[in-house]
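User: Please fill in residues for this 179-position structure.
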């Protein structure tokens, strides 16, 4: 999903071809390293977007002793779908890292809708944490289990607090118009 958002965002700026998009993607965030994005995966996303009618080939550049370059453009259907893909990215994401391509393209969506999505996520994290934070009291075991229980509880507690802090910070920055 995030790769497709990135591809569409590049095509919103102008026509482009897959290799150049991959290079730009790697400059933005080394997603090729973080997600093991290969050229075949990138071309798969271009094919998928083309199949759905969101992008189309507008030019083929032929160079001697090199493979042909297909230059793509976003279609009207793609322009209409682009904000929906950004909303889905926020709805499905679980961390700030998941939201980065959406944040980079927040100008194409209704910020208040993004805030609503994030506030629902924050509420969900709070609710899940309330259900699970006392799990160590419900588990009985020997001394070794107790150490593991404390370790796991502390890990998830810290991770949850960290996630909540940054999600709430993100909501505030969007509300203030700083993002």
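Assistant: Residues filled in for all 179 positions:
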């Amino acid at each position: 999903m995030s790769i497709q958002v990135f591809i569409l965002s590049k095509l919103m700026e102008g026509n482009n071809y897959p290799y150049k998009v991959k290079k730009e993607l790697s400059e933005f965030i080394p997603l090729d390293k973080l997600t093991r994005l290969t050229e075949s995966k990138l071309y798969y996303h271009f094919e998928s977007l083309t199949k759905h009618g969101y992008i189309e080939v507008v030019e083929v550049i032929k160079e001697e002793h090199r493979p042909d370059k297909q230059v793509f453009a976003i279609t009207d259907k793609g322009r209409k779908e682009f904000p929906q893909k950004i909303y889905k990215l926020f709805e499905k994401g679980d961390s700030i890292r998941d939201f980065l391509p959406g944040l980079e393209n927040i100008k194409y969506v209704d910020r208040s809708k993004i805030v609503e999505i994030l506030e629902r996520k924050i509420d969900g994290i709070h609710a899940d944490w309330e259900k699970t934070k006392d799990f160590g009291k419900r588990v009985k075991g020997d001394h070794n289990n107790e150490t593991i229980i404390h370790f796991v509880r502390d890990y998830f507690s810290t991770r949850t607090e960290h996630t909540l802090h940054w999600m709430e910070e993100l909501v505030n920055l969007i509300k203030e118009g700083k993002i």
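For context: The mean pLDDT is 87.
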